[in-house]
Amino acid sequence: MKKVKLTFVFILLAYIGFSQSNFTDLSIDRLNKQRQGMLVLGTWALGNMAVGAIRLGHTSGENKAFQQMQIGWNVVNLGIATLGYFSTLKVDPSSWDTYQSVQEHYKIQKILLFNAGLDVGYMLGGAYLMQRGQQEVKNAERLRGFGRSILIQGAFLFAFDLSLHSILSSDNPKLKPLLTQSSIGFAPNEVHLRLNLSK
After folding, report:
1. Bridge partners, residue 195, by sequence
2. Facing residues of 184 across strands?
3. Cβ(13)–Cβ(165) under 8 Å?
4. Is residue 150 helix, strand or coil?
5. pLDDT in tens, 114-165
6. What is the pTM of this model?
7. Residue 10 and residue 172: Cα distance in Å, rounded?
8. H or E segment and range at residue 26
9. Alpha-carbon distance 70 to 186, whole Å?
10. Which of 66, 78, 120, 135 could form a disulfide with 145 if both were Cys (CB 3.0 to 4.6 A apart)?
């Protein structure tokens, strides 16, 4: 009887270790993709800031306002990219249990979809400022310049967030086999173990 119990414990521990290893690998891959996404966002931000700084002294009116907003907006983008990149370096996915691994997997996707909704708002706000700048109002050139910049930045972020969401969600089908491959059930005086060893 002791051999049966020891064998059961060994199989259980091996299963837990194998399953957790698969989730850890999937989480590491996701974090790498997030880091690459933050590098893309950071590169976009630095490029816009550099071009804006170069052109700022050679423009006036609407174009000057456009470059000012390009610089200001991308200071924020660079901050988000930097925080996002370094936050992925601080986590240890091997310390997560199955529930936390799945939760983290879907959390970033929900954030990206929420951000895409905000991006639509940015584009609408930019279009509104451009429209207001067409009227006889104070600072009309500034409104048009700011609006054009916000519209462009919102469009980029919309494409960026949806693209990164698509890349990360392409791993969603990999979760089901990991979650359904085996199960452990408990009842009074009983333990049920189902192992699915097929790939």
Report:
1. 182
2. 193
3. no
4. helix
5. 999 999 999 999 999 999 999 888 899 999 999 999 999 999 999 999 999 9
6. 0.78
7. 30
8. helix 2-56
9. 59
10. 66
CA–CA dist 165, 106 (Å, integer): 10
From the CB of residue 156, how many other CB atoms can be counted at a distance below 10 Å? 17
Tokens representing 150 are: 């916000």
Cα 163-164-166 angle, rounded to 5 deg: 65
Provide the residue type at 41 as one letter: L
Q: Which of 21-25, 97-101, 146-150, 182-186 has the lowest mean pLDDT?
A: 182-186
Sequential DSSP letters for 98-149 = HHHHHHHHHHHHHHHHHHHHHHHHHHHHHHHHHHHTTSS-TTHHHHHHHHHH
**CB burial of residue 56 (10 Å; 0-12, 13-18, 19+):** middle
Exposure of 182 in the CB half-sphere (CA atoms within 13 A): 20
Q: Are 170 and 114 in contact (CB under 8 A)?
A: no
Taking CA atoms, 174 is separated from 8, 148, 199, in Å, by 27, 41, 12
